Every structure is written in C-alpha cells, then in structure tokens.
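Run folding on both entries below.
>entry_1
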Amino acid sequence: MVMVGFSISMLDGKALYRDILNATEEFDAKFCIGQGGHGSVYKVNLPSLGNIAVKRLHSSFQNTHPKSFINEVRALTGIKHRNIVNLYGYCSKAQHSFLVYEYVERGSLSSILSNEVESKKLDWLKRVNIIKGVAFALSYMHRDCSSPIVHRDISSSNVLLDSEYEARIADFGIAKILKPDSSNCTAFAGTYGYVAPELAYTMKVTQMCDVYSFGVLSLEIVKGKHLGDYISVLANSSTIDPEQLSDLLDERLPYPDDRVKDVLVFIINLACSCLLETPKSRPTMPFISHKLSSMDARLPIHQKTPI
C-alpha cells in the first residue's frame, strides 16, 4: 500500500516525504527524541515547516496492529483544538510508515514531572492550567466532534507541553470513534494505572473511560507522581479533608497560599468524582470543563516566570 497525504496546503506530499528522509538521514538514531512500544519520534527541521515531529511506526508493530496507523489518521483528521497536537500529514509505504506532527517543545508531561529540576518550574498555576487544557480537549472530543472520539490512553506520557506549558493531547493510536449504531466494543487497551476499572469486565468503550483516566492524571499532576494504589482509597472518598491535602500535594513546590489551595482542593475533589466505580456516576467532560472554567475568577493573575 502506498498512501501519502499532507493536509498543509501548497505542499507537495512526495517532495516532503523525500525531504523528511533526507533531513533524518533515513531515520538515523541521532535525530530520535523519543521511543515507545509503537514507534520512534524524530525531530526534523525543514525549510518549509520549521521544526516538526515525525513518528515512525516500528515495522513489527505495523504488522501486528495494522489498524493503529489509519486509526490515528482518522481520529485526528479534521480535529482542530489548541490542546490537541496538530497532525500535518502521514505516509504509509512498504519501507516507512510515519505521521507528521507539530513539534511540541517541552516534550511529555511525564518526563517533566519525573525531572527534579524541570518539575519545579511547573508551579501550581501552570499545573492547574495543564489540567484545564486536557479537560477542554477531552470535552471537545466527546461533545463537539461530528462523531464522539474516546482517546482511551490518557496518561502523563501522552500529554505534551509547549514552550508556554500549554497542554497538547497526543497519541491517538488506540482512539475509538463512537458510532451510534454500534456496540462500540473493542479489545482491552490503555496504560496500566490509568485504565477505567469497568474495562476489566466489559469491552464497551464510552466517554467515561476517558473521564476516569482524566481523574487519575489530574491527581498525578497535583502530586507530581502517579498515586498508585491510593487511587482506590480516593475513589471511595466523598471529599478531601485538610489532613489529606498535604499528602496529595507535590512536596517539591512551596505550599500553596489559601486562594490557590482552595482551587487545588476543588480540583482534587472533582478528580475523585471521576474515579467512581460506576461509570454513570462520574461527571462528563463538558461538565468538568464548565466547572474548571468557573474557577478563573478565583485564581490570581498568572505571572510568567523567567526561563
């Protein structure tokens, strides 16, 4: 199969394909900026586009998961949201299958949270803004797309941060486009520790799978690391008391002042409601986005910190 498609107007797909191969010296390892189970990501600088990210799928993964590539293309085609990574184009040939994305400068949220120096640059207000950005993107996917899209793999590894620490949801390889006349059942997939518990006994995918993952991710952003087994404790908590709060905050940051603390408590309680065992008891992403937007009046004006 030969499939070359680029959505940026005025660009020649075949010429861009050649430019990418030349710029990466046929995907030499020195241009690689990240690796995963599905493929490798390369930073490429082209005169026509500037910096771009090229995700090249491993041939072994392509052979075992032939639908993943086209799935990602279908999910991202036509999507335009400031908190979702931009897909510029794609190519599928016998030698190479790759996706071309905007380059997101700071990389994954997980890599920043796990770095002692970089994590301290993520102050409380930046973290609140990241949580809001992910919520806005998921709300858009669930409600505002022509057919609802469930990401199915929301995690700190699949959230990228730009130069201003704005969130971009990435990696739509296992996303599910919901169809009204379908059971929307599928094989188990996702990242351990973020997957909704109902997927252990049902293969039916709903928006509530993403809601659960969003709750886990929000708590991770506030704490600075995944909460592990403590997630199940919080899933059964109606509200967080002041004694619990200290245990849920990232100790690498200064303790928040009262106004920011109130916002963090609000977010933690909202995140805990996303963890409820019964999917229908969880809030929807549009509801969560509305609640997070209503916090703006409570937040102090964000001061940009020197980098």
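>entry_2
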Amino acid sequence: MNDKTFAIKIDGVTKRFDQKVAVNNLSLTVNSGEIFGFLGPNGAGKTTLVKMMNGILTPNEGIISIEGINPFEKPAVAHRYMGTLTETTNMYEYMTGEENLYFYGSVFGMDKAVLKDRIEELLEAVDLLDDKDKKVGDYSTGMKKRLALARAIIHYPKLVILDEPTSGLDPENARKINSLIKEYVATNNATVFICTHQLRYAQDICDRYGFINKGHIICTGTLSELIEKNSFSNNIHLKAKLGCPNKLLDQYKVQEEIYQIPFTDEEEIAELIKSVVVDGGKVYEARLKRPTLEDVYFSLLNEEAS
C-alpha cells in the first residue's frame, strides 16, 4: 500500500542509546483523518519515537514516513506537513502572543496578508484575542498551552503531534483545547497523534489507540477492537437480595449482595432481573459495566509484566 494512504507509517524502527534500546523494532501505521492516542508508561519510548518522527533523532534501523515523506531525507518538506506541541510550550516569553504567532508563521513562509487573518482567527479560537498584546511571560499556564496549540496549527499542517496537550490545565481550559483539536481535524481533514498518560481523556477524544511498553507496540485498534482482540467481557453490576439460592449468581458474587455477571446480549439483563424477582428476591441496582480504555490498558501492561 502507498505510504500516502497513511499520515504516519513506521516500519521496523529501532533506536539505541549506547546499550539501552529505547525503541525496539517498532512498526505502526496511523490513518489519515483520525485522532490517534499513543499510550504508555514513562520510559516506554513515546518521546523518543516522537523525536524521530520530527527528525530530531535518527533511528538506528527502520523507516519513518510522514505523509509519504521521509523526515530524515527531506526534513524541511516533512515539517511543512507537521505541527508539534510538546509538553513544555517553548514560546518566546519576551514577545507578545501575536508576535509569537507571526514569527512562527513567517518561518513557514506564509503570505503576510494570509498570516494576519490566520493569527486573528486562531487567537479568537483559543480565546486569546483580548490578550494578544501581552507578553507571553505574563500568560498563565493555560494561556500558554492554548497559544502553543495555535502555533502548532498556524500553517494548516496535515499532521499535528501533541504531547500531553491538557497536562496542567483546569477542566475549562482542557475543554477548550479538546474542542479546538476536534474542530481542526473536522475542518481540515487532518490527523492528530496524541501522546498522553491520561487514559480517560484519550478515551474521550481518540478514534484509535496504540499501546507501547519497553520500546515495542503491545496492541493497536479502536476501543471495541481492543476489547474484542483481548477477550474482555461486558458485565452486569447487580446489587440484589436473593429470595432463594442461585448457583448461577453465586459464582459471580464479589461481596455480600453484589454480583458481577458477564453477558453478551443486553436481553440477558432483563431476564436476569426477572428471575431474581420471580424467586422472591429484591433488585436494588442493575447496570451495565463495559470495559474502559483504562481496564484494557492496565490489563495488557500487567500481562506484559508477568
């Protein structure tokens, strides 16, 4: 398949630092137009891989393709397709917010008239229009993060790489960042590659996931695919007082009057509740408990450790 089918194609990449293998024969594809969550513990190799994708580090082995372009052979061309937000915002603090965006837009060779309109559009989108003339050194953490995201997408990149985009933000600022990311993908047919430790956040925003541990990929897929691949089951959480002994329920008892029962068909829930009531029991609570991204992630990491 042509590399241009994928926003990112990584094939057999290894990166060593002396005797330490940071990334080990890693292969991964990210489809165009998706928000991809790249998840793993500290030291798993996430940052090393992102630095190779940006052309900052060169792999010892393997090939990386960004929108069909090798970032080591043609770094300037690859960077025109990319925008990156690191965990530290790295803005020029002695410059204003507007001056920062003008500088970075100029680096990408944007037309002055186009750049002027683009800066105003982005400052409004990240709710910084009224603060555009303030020095970035006087910005709060949330303001700096929002400005850094505006900088990352100022040149309309097809691929946006975000490292912990909502770390250190309050819920309101995190919501603004998420809204901007989703809107950018939808209106520009762009791809977003998110490195994060925040699993609930990743489940809310990402379409597909890749788990990395000790430099290699454990698993990739949508949440539904990850659940199916690894045979996770949906459960009914039942709180009930039984009217008579029930061998089926007894095997799923987790504590007094609490049961966790696997199921495949939601019709089973109604039948289960009915059977408890018919036998003289009382149902206090019955709800679905589907596996979360967090459940899958920690289960796979624990499996790796054992």
